[in-house]
């Protein structure tokens, strides 16, 4: 028996207007419903209804668009990673640029004290750090910094680079760097750097100013150019200046004095020069009481403590003492015109080598002495009374070496450097207050 043919009707809206799709699927032309026929009983089964407002049913996925979106996303991620990597690289470069070094200001510094106009005392340290340049055929690179401490606290109040080309050196100077301090009669502080540059300390800005090109301005004898500057051994008021034409002069800006250097073997000529300088200084000099240790006779010891009065010009260069290590006898002091008077301060006592005068005040003189000649004998600090040279106080230390003494930088204390604890601050009652830290950290 044949099958009964039924009219295909949309199960949703009842319309007979349908279009056959593939297999047994049909689509209603009125409501866009998609349905199929069950071949077993020709039952109409409602498969899906899609209601679209003036649009097509379920458009197929655009694979090309997906690929484009993925490519754009990947490109964005790669760009972000590269940018992040660049930022990290720049950060690392900044860290490298801010590397630091540790420098001992005691071993690698040149220290001087200075009394400001407001009566405060400061300590100035010009610190250098040298290193060999890789593949530089033995060349050395040196950098400098200026560090200023407030005294007596030791607090650092300024720390800046000291911009000087240490590769430039005066004639005959073979040191990697050198600094020598001196003052003029107005107490202006100068530093001779590498025996070529002259720097002046600016009290207002607390910095060093290069005055090399102006210091010798107008001096006809030096017009060929200066190639070396040193402190003279003949007089603490003179600079030894060598020129490009091979001449060497002795020069004093304060005294408006310049003349060719006298040969070391010309003793009489050097003696006359000392007398000439003495007469020029006489108007600007004053008598000052000081103390020093000196040998007696030709022996290396014993030493005696000498109390003397000297006529000094204001601003005698720093680091130049009145008594040389070649002094043979106390009697030679009277031959120096600047020595007004002298006496053996402690006539009943002699001292071992390496004895030091640390300072003095209205009450007495402070000394550092050793009690024996043993190699590692530590220093004993004492204060001796003026009237009878009796010991006012005595302090035993463990220091075996005292390097430099900064005498009477203040009415209240003395400064000196030792082998172990650095820069020592000692008040005039014998109390060791603290050691000023001279270990610095600098950015390179």
N- to C-terminal distance: 107 Å
- Mean pLDDT across the residues is 78
> Count of helices?
3
Category by helix and strand content: mainly beta
Quote the beta fraction: 35-45%
Helix content: 10-25%
- Strand order in the largest sheet: 1-2-3-4
Largest sheet: 4 strands, antiparallel
Number of β-strand runs: 29
Question: What are the low-pLDDT stretches, counting only 5+ consecutive residues below 50?
Answer: 40-59, 91-96, 316-335
Report the radius of gyration as a whole number of Å: 45 Å
What does this structure look like?
The chain has 444 residues and is mainly beta. A hairpin with a 7-residue loop joins strand 18 and strand 19. The chain is built from 3 helices and 29 strands. The strands form 8 sheets. It has a 4-stranded antiparallel beta sheet with strand order 1-2-3-4, with no helix packed on it. Strands 6-7-8-9 form a 4-stranded antiparallel beta sheet, with no helix packed on it. The model is unreliable at 40-59, 91-96 and 316-335 (pLDDT under 50).
Question: Which key phrases capture this entry?
Answer:
444 residues; mainly beta; 4-stranded antiparallel β-sheet; 3 helices; 29 strands
Task: Give a quick precis of the structure.
With 444 residues, the chain is mainly β.
Layout of strands and helices, then pairs:
Layout: E1 18-20, E2 25-28, E3 34-38, E4 43-48, H1 63-97, E5 100-104, E6 109-115, E7 121-132, E8 140-151, E9 156-161, E10 179-183, E11 189-193, E12 197-202, E13 207-210, H2 212-215, E14 226-231, E15 239-243, E16 248-252, E17 257-260, H3 267-281, E18 285-295, E19 303-313, E20 339-344, E21 356-360, E22 364-370, E23 379-385, E24 391-396, E25 402-406, E26 413-418, E27 422-427, E28 432-436, E29 439-443
Antiparallel strand pairs: 1-2, 2-3, 3-4, 5-29, 6-7, 7-8, 8-9, 10-11, 11-12, 12-13, 14-15, 15-16, 16-17, 18-19, 19-20, 21-22, 22-23, 23-24, 25-26, 26-27, 27-28
């Amino acid at each position: 028996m044949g099958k009964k043919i039924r009219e295909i009707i949309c199960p949703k809206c009842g319309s007979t207007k349908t279009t056959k799709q593939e297999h047994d699927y049909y689509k209603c032309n009125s409501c866009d419903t998609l349905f199929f026929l069950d071949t077993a009983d020709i039952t109409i089964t409602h498969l899906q209804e899609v209601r679209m407002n003036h649009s097509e049913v379920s458009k197929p996925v655009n694979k090309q668009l997906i690929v484009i979106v993925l490519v754009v996303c990947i490109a964005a991620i790669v760009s972000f990673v590269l940018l992040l990597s660049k930022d990290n690289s720049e950060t690392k470069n900044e860290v490298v640029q801010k590397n630091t070094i540790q420098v001992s200001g005691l071993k690698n510094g040149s220290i001087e004290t200075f009394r400001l106009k407001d009566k405060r005392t400061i300590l100035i340290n010009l610190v250098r750090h040298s290193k060999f340049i890789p593949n530089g055929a033995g060349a050395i690179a040196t950098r400098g910094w200026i560090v200023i401490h407030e005294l007596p606290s030791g607090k650092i109040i300024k720390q800046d680079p000291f911009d000087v080309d240490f590769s430039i050196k005066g004639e005959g100077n073979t040191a990697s760097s050198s600094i020598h301090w001196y003052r003029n009669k107005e107490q202006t502080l100068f530093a001779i750097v590498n025996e070529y540059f002259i720097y002046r300390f600016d009290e207002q800005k607390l910095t060093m100013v290069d005055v090399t090109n102006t210091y010798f301005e107008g001096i006809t004898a030096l017009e060929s150019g200066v190639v070396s500057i040193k402190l003279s051994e003949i007089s603490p008021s003179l600079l030894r200046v060598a020129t490009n034409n091979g001449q060497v002069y002795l020069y004093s800006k304060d005294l408006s004095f310049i003349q060719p250097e006298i040969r070391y073997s010309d003793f009489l000529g050097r003696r006359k020069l000392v007398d000439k300088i003495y007469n020029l200084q006489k108007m600007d000099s004053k008598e000052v009481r000081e103390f020093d240790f000196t040998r007696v006779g030709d022996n290396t010891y014993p030493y005696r403590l000498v109390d003397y009065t000297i006529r000094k010009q204001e601003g005698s260069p720093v680091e130049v003492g009145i008594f040389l290590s070649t002094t043979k006898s106390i009697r030679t002091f009277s031959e120096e015109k600047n020595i007004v008077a002298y006496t053996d301060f402690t006539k009943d006592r002699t001292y071992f080598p390496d004895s030091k005068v640390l300072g003095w005040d209205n009450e007495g003189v402070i000394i550092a002495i050793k009690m024996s000649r043993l190699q590692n004998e530590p220093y004993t600090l004492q204060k001796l009374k003026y009237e009878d040279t009796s010991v006012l106080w005595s302090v035993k230390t463990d220091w075996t070496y005292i390097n430099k003494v900064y005498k009477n930088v203040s009415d209240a204390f003395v400064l000196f450097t030792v082998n172990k604890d650095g820069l020592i601050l000692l008040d005039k009652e014998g109390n060791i207050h603290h050691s000023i830290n001279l270990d610095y950290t600098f950015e390179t």
